[in-house]
Amino acid sequence: MATINHKRKYMGGVLTLLLLLIGFNTLAAEQRSVEDRTTNVVGSAVIQGEDLAAAREQAITNSLGVALHATVERLIDAQTLVEWFQAVDRELYSRPNDYIQGFRVLAESTFGGHYRVMVQTTVAADKVAAKLTDLGVLTPQQGLPRILLLLSEQNVNDVQPIFWWGKNLLQTPMVTEVAAESVLSESAFEVIDRRQVSAALDYPQMLSDEQAIELGRRLNAQVVIIGQAAAEARPSSVAGTLRSFSAFVTARALRVETGKVIASDQKSALAVGEADTAAGRQALENAATLITQSLAGQIAESWRQAQSGSGQLSVLVEGTGGQIASFVRFRSLLGSIPGVKGLQLTEMNANSAVMAVDYQGSPRGLAEALLGQPYDTFGINIYEISENGLKIKLVPK
């Protein structure tokens, strides 16, 4: 057992995290534009008395919150959001206007004592990601693999699926392809530009694992994502000329070096519109976004675990009760230490937390590295170093 006491102060204020309940009484229908990160959302508010103006403003505010939340969900998984909700609420949800580039009311309606608006909203995703990184909620991914997308799609009026690796080289990017590339790029993956292929490849639409791996090797990919997506009209209809459409997508990710499946999932999504093709494209885009978010997390975790020379240490942190801000800062600093390839919160209690840390080095080396970090209004007491990890207590100043 070894005991190391450390307290430091750095320039900066105290980050106070408050748990605020935000009443998003909303019906969200996200329609994401990959290029400008624009969403169409529906916000709702209760009409108090006869004050329609106030209800309208509240509905707009709620819609902006929904759009912001959708962007947050694209950057971090649901479990992480639950763990760090107080920080995200305090720094993002409580002031959505800081992250909204612009919005436009497309339609509005009153019914059943509610005022509803459809708002086209553009969220500054880069600012959201930067804030999440500053808080330690989003940690920069390093050493992630190069990915080749092998996605086929079939829209409502397509006779058969379209794909780029067949007898006829498809030059125009597909909806699912563009949506998946956007999600992967925002998650710090490198996506191979398949436009470097200058001649038809003559592979079948339904690729075997062996064929997909062969393509991956030809284009210098480390991971290939194989998937099929299809959209169809739903039997139900919406008021007026609007119709509803659904898209279903299934996909798996293979590590090229080993041929092993490292991620897989299936998702479905809806869209509403007057034109079959346009609404079908929207449904395909929505479904591709959902499944790529899922695959990205699985691939990143698998890749981190497979990194040579790294071992998983358990880091117990006590004294977190009433010091959530300090714990957020500590986690951020821990993730920035050279040799730390990933960390995951595995347990959270009233006054303690346990993290699994992939670290290239010894527990004592990690303890010494922690001593060199710039803490603010708290210190740390590393009261135990073992071959399995560290036990640390946060010490308030």
Give the ordered list of helices and strands. Answer: EEHHHEEHEHEHEEEHEHEEHEE
How many structural domains are formed by the residues?
3
* Spatial ordering of strands, largest sheet: 1-13-14-10-12-11
Contiguous runs where pLDDT drops below 50 for at least 5 residues: 1-36
What's the main sheet like? 6 strands, mixed
Tell me the CATH topology of the largest domain: Double Stranded RNA Binding Domain
Tell me what the CATH architecture of the largest domain is: 2-Layer Sandwich
From the alpha carbons, calculate the radius of gyration and give it in angstroms.
24 Å
Sheet-strand content, in percent, reads 25-35%
Q: In angstroms, what separates the terminal alpha carbons?
A: 25 Å
Helix proportion range: 25-40%
Question: What is the count of β-strands?
Answer: 14
Give the count of helical stretches. 9
For CATH, the homologous superfamily of the largest domain is named as: Lipoprotein like domain
CATH class of the largest domain: Alpha Beta
Secondary structure category: alpha+beta
Overall shape: it is flat
